[in-house]
Every structure is written in structure tokens, then in C-alpha cells.
Amino acid sequence: MQCKSDTSAKRRPARVRTIAPLAASITALLLAMTATTAHAGNVCEMDGGTPSTADGNGAVACGVDNEASGDYSMAFGRNNEATGNSATALGLGNLAVGGALAVGIANESTANTASTFGAFNEASANYATAIGYGSVASSLSSTALGRENQAAGESSTAVGDRNVASDQNATAVGSGNLAGRASTAVGRGNEANNVGSTALGNMNIASGANATAVGIVNHATANWSTALGSSNEASAAGSTAVGRSNQATGENASAYGHENTASGAHATALGRENLAAGDASTAVGFSNTTNAGAGSAFGSNNVVDGEFATAVGYRNTAAGNSSLAMGFVSEAHGSNSVAMGYGAIAHADDSVAIGTDSVADRANTVSIGAAGAERNLANVADAVQATDAVNLRQMEAADAATLSSANAYTDTREAAIRADIAQGSAAAVATATDYTDSREIEIRSDMEAADAATLSSANAYTDTREAAIRADIVQGSAAAVATATDYTDSREVEIRSDMETADAATLSSANAYTDDREGAVRSDMETADAATLASANRYTDQRIASVAGFDPTAMLDRMDLLEDRFDDISYQMERMDRRIDRHGAMSAAMLNMAINAAGGRSERGRIAVGAGVQGGREALSVGYGRRVGERASFSLGAAFSGSERSAGVGFGVDL
Questions:
Q1: What CA–CA distances, in Å, run from 610 to 588, 595, 639?
Q2: In a domain, 157, yes or no
Q3: Residue 545 located in a structural domain
Q4: Residue 235's pLDDT is what?
Q5: CATH number of the domain that 582 lies in?
Q6: Which residue segment(s) compose the domain that 592 sits in?
Q7: Comparing C-alpha atoms, which of 350, 315, 320 is closest to residue 332?
Q8: I want to staple 344 with a disulfide (CB 3.0 to 4.6 A). Which of 66, 353, 394, 597 is the partner?
Q9: What are phi and psi of 601, to 5 degrees?
Q10: Highest mean pLDDT range out of 357-371, 450-464, 489-503?
């Protein structure tokens, strides 16, 4: 059968001429389909194109150049193909094959139960779905929703704008995301391209297996790595970077906070700008560094260079293996050394320095001070064992006992010596006394002679030098003073003359420059004032002339023209009110028709009629609804009110 359009459409606006033939064709199609059982050849043709064909059993084709060649297939619109059994193609240039559904413009559903909706979409695998614009679902049970999305893996999903779900069970949601096998990318510009990886946020990359990158510009590039926050990098297996600009580059390393780096295996950096470079090392706080294995730094600006060493506080250094530096600017350089306090230093192995500026520079010693800055060790208990330290009380008691024993020994020896002297030393004493007396006399005589000669020579030399020095001073000082005085007087006269000349020249130049600038400014002001006054006079003369030449007749003509324009606007508003009322009535009619056309259970469908009224304008609508298989349904409808027409088509699919 053929449905002709209303010939009066040639006298209507272009929009009405387009809708009216479609509405008439839909109405004729509804009446024809409900009157007879569907069979091969059910065709609804429209003028202006190649006729449609329906070759399949129970097939339906309606529109221009449509083809429904499969059993129970349907093709509606223009240039659509429904080539498989139960296939449905609706719109413009769609292709549906083998139980597939294609709705919109230039969509292709080329596999069993595949579905496409929108424009230029493609669903090429069983149970695949592509909805939107330019989206492709090319694998089993894949789904692509939005603009230019690709769901290429089995059971994959791509939703949004230009997302790619490239492998099995991949999910890409947002804009410009890429998801690999069993991975998830959600947000903008994210990449989760390895098995089980996840990238959420903006410009994140999770390229390792089971890696996770969440936030902004994070990179989790190794297996089981995690990067959370902003600009973090977890590049080793099992590594974690959380916060901002952290780097976890060692295996199973962790960096938390801001600009921390954990480059050693199993290392941990927590806080800000910390570096944990040694394996199993820990840096917590601000700007701490652990360079050796199993080293630990807590606080700020501490450095650990020894294995198993620890630095706690501010700017401490633990350089020796198993050393400990604690406090402020303390240093433990020896192996197993300890430095505690302010500026304490333990240089030697197994040494301990405790307190401010204490120094331990001998192995196996404990220092509580330094050379020249010694301290007392207070509150020391009495020693019990041989290696215990003793206190002052114990030392005084021991000294008293030693002194008593020494005194007794001395007294005994003195008594024995006195007895020996009394018995055998009298002769020796007499001989020694005589010899000493004679030598004393000789020495005194020699000394007196030498002293007299030396004194005479020294006095003569001193008198000669004193006379020469006095003469030089008198002659040289007088000449030097005279020369200096003359030079000073001459330089003073020259300087005063130069200053007077320079001051006069400077004053003359400044006065001349000031006079010139004053004259120029006065001239510019007079010229500008004259120009401003002339311009103001001309403007005033023009305004007076304009007011004086006022024409009442011209003003009345302009008022009449304005009234005519208001009349035209009133007429246009009345026409708009009529059209609004007609459209409102058609909307009410379409609504009531659609409610009654929905839910039909008959294989032949259901036809429904609706009426509507608004502002004194009536409208009538006619519609038809029918289920297509177990999953799909469609409906057609048209409404009429005076010279206004509208038509619509609807489709539904159970996903």
C-alpha cells in the first residue's frame, strides 16, 4: 500500500511540509498493520524515494529504500537494512543482522543480539551494545556508550568520550581513558593497561599488573605498585607513593607525604623531602636522609650513613655502623658509637659522648665533656666490684690509709738513717764542708771582676748611642714639620678656589634651566586653554542651533509609525498565543494516547487515540505500539490541531 501526503502542504511553512507527510504515513501504517496479520510484503512507502521491500516472513518495511529481508525483521525510516531474522533497523542508513537492533543514523549491528543506538555506532559481536556517536563494541558482551568509545575486549565497557576498553573485562569511564585486561580507568586521560590495574582521576597511569594510580598525574608502573594523590611515582614492584610528588623507586618501598623518595628496597620515607636510599631504611620527618641499609632517621635534617645506624632529632649524623646520634647537631662516627645531646661527637669505635659539646675520641670510653670543658659525674654510688667507678668519699678514705702507712714507713727509715749518720758520717761531713768553703771564695772573686768589666762597657755604649739619637731627632723633626706645614697651606688654598668656581657654575646653570622650563610650561598652558575654549564654544553653538530647528510635524509622523509597529507586534503575539494553545492541546493528546498504547500484549500490537484541549483549542492524536520479540518494543504516533501537525516514534530495548 502507499500513503500519499496532503497536497496543501505546498502552501505551508517548510517545517510543516516535512512533518505532515510523515504523520500521514504513520497514521496509514498503523491502520494497515492492525487490520491484517503480518506477512511477507508489509510495506509502507513514502513519496520521493526508492520503494521499501519486506521479503521476510512477517517482515515490515516503512519509509524510503528500506529492506527487511529476514523473517520477522523490521526496517523503518530511510536506507535501512534488517537482513537477519528478528532484526530491527530504525532511522537513517542503519544495518541490523541476525536478531540485532540498530536505531538512529548509520549504525551497524552485525552480530546476533547486538544493539546500536545513536549515530555511526558499531556493534559487531554477540550481545554487544554501542550507544551514542561513533562508538564501537567489537567483542562478546561488550558495551560502548557515549562519543567515539571503543569496547574491544570480551565483557568490556567504555563509557563517556573517546575511551578505550581494549581487553577482556576492561572498564573505561570518562574522557580519553584506556583500560587493559581486567583493568579499570575512570576520569580523564587515565591509562590502566595491565592485568588488574586501576587508574582513577586525571592523567594517571597504572601500567603494572594489579597496579593502582588514583588522583592527578600519578604513575604506578610496576606490578602491585600504588600511587595515590598528585604527581606521585611508584616504579618498583610492590612500591607505594601517597601524597604529592613522592617517589617510591625501590622494591616494596613506601613514600608518604610531600616530595619524599624511597629508593631502597623495603625502604620507608614519611613526611616531607625525606630520602630513604638504603635497603630497609626509614626516614621520617623533614629532609632526613638514610643512605645505608636498615638505617633510621627521625626528626629534621638528619643524615644516616652507617648500616643499622639511627639519628633522632635535628641535624644529627650517624655515620658509623650501628651508631646512634640523638639530640641537636650530634655526630656518631665510630662503629657502635653513641652521641647524645647538643653538638656531642663520638669519633672512636664503641665510644659514648653524652652532653653538650662532649667529645669521645678514644675507643671503648664514655665522655661527658671535652678537653678544657670537663664535667663532674655526680651521684655515683660506692663501687662494689673491681670494674666499678669510685666516688670522692671512697678515694679520701683510701688516701688516708695509704698516707698513714707511708708515714710509718718513713719514720722507721728516718730513725735508721739518723743512727748511721751519727756513727759513720762525721768525717765525711767535715771534709765536704772544707771543700765547699774554698770553692765559694774562688767563685765570688771571679764574679766580681766580670761584673765590673761588663758594667763599664755597657755604660760607654749607652752614652754614645744616646748622643747620636738626640742629634738626629733635632735635625730631622724640624725639617719634616716645616715641609708638612707648607704643603698643607698650599692645598687648602687650591681646594677653596676650586669649590668657589664650581659652586658659581652650578648655580648659573640651574637658574638658566629653571627659567627655560617655566617659559615652556606657560606657553603650553596658554595654547591648551585657547583650544579648549574654542571647542566648547563650537559645541554650545551647535546644540543651540539644533534646539532652535525643532520640527513638530516630523515628531508626529514618527509617533504614528511607532503606533503601527505596536499594532503589528500585538497581532504577532495573538498568533503566537493560538499556536501555543494548539501545541499544548497536541501534547495533552499525545500523552494520553501514549499511556494507552503502552503495554500492549497482542502480537498485532495496540492502537490508541487521545484528545487534548488548551485555551479553547482542541487536538486529536492517534498512535500504535507493538512489542518486538522479548526484549524490544516500538511505538508510532501523530497529533493534529487546526493547521498544526506533529508526529513521533519511540523505541525501547531491555538490556
A1: 8, 9, 9
A2: no
A3: no
A4: 97
A5: 3.30.1300.30
A6: 575-653
A7: 320
A8: 353
A9: -105, -10
A10: 357-371
Phi-psi region of 308 (alpha: psi -120 to 50; beta: other; left: phi over 0): left
Task: Judge contact between 593 and 583, C-beta under 8 A.
Answer: no
Contact 598, 587 (CB under 8 A): no
Q: For residues 214 and 230, what is the distance between their CA atoms, to the nearest angstrom?
A: 8
Residues pairing with 147 in the sheet: 133, 161
- The answer to whether residue 291 is domain-embedded is no
Query: Among residues of the chain, what percentage have pLDDT more than 70?
Result: 71
Given the C-alpha cell 487490520, which residue does it identify?
Answer: 35
Q: Determine contact, residues 315/329, Cβ cutoff 8 Å.
A: yes
Q: What is the pLDDT of residue 66?
A: 96
The 3-class SS string of 305-342 reads CCCCCEEEEECCEECCCCCEEEEECCEECCCCCEEEEE
Handedness of CA 556, 562, 568, 569 (dihedral sign): negative
β-partners of residue 173 are 159, 186
Give pTM, 2 decimals.
0.56
Mean predicted confidence (pLDDT) in 51-71: 93
Residue 294 is classified by DSSP as T
Residues in the chain: 655
Q: How many CA atoms lie within 13 A of 241 on its CB side?
A: 41
One-letter amino acid identity for 118? Answer: G
For residue 72, give the 3-state DSSP assignment. coil
Per-residue pLDDT reduced to its tens digit, 189-248 = 999 999 999 999 999 999 999 999 999 999 999 999 999 999 999 999 999 999 999 999
Rounded to whole angstroms, the Cα distance separating 251 from 238 reads 6
**DSSP bridge pairs for 494:** none
Strands 345-346 and 178-179: unpaired
Q: How far apart are CA 654 and CA 504, in angstroms?
A: 106
**In a domain? residue 384:** no
pLDDT 10s digits, 543-562:
544 544 545 566 567 667 77
Specify whether the CB–CB gap between 339 and 332 falls below 8 A. yes
Mean pLDDT of 531-545: 57
Listed residue (55, 122, 56, 59) closest to 93, CA to CA:
122
Task: Count structural domains, the chain.
Answer: 1
Which of the residue ranges 12-26, 127-141, 612-626 has the most confident prediction, judged by mean pLDDT?
Answer: 127-141
Residue of 179, 247, 246, 238 lying closest to 207 (CA atoms): 179
Alpha-carbon separation of residue 186 from 130, 158, 256, 470, 512 (angstroms): 19, 10, 24, 105, 79
Measured between alpha carbons, how far is 217 from 232 in angstroms, rounded to an integer?
7
Distance (Å, rounded) from C-alpha 457 to C-alpha 364? 66
Q: Return the SS3 of 242.
A: strand
Rounded Cα distance between 283 and 347, Å, is: 24
For residue range 573-599, list pLDDT tens digits in order: 788 888 888 888 888 888 887 878 776
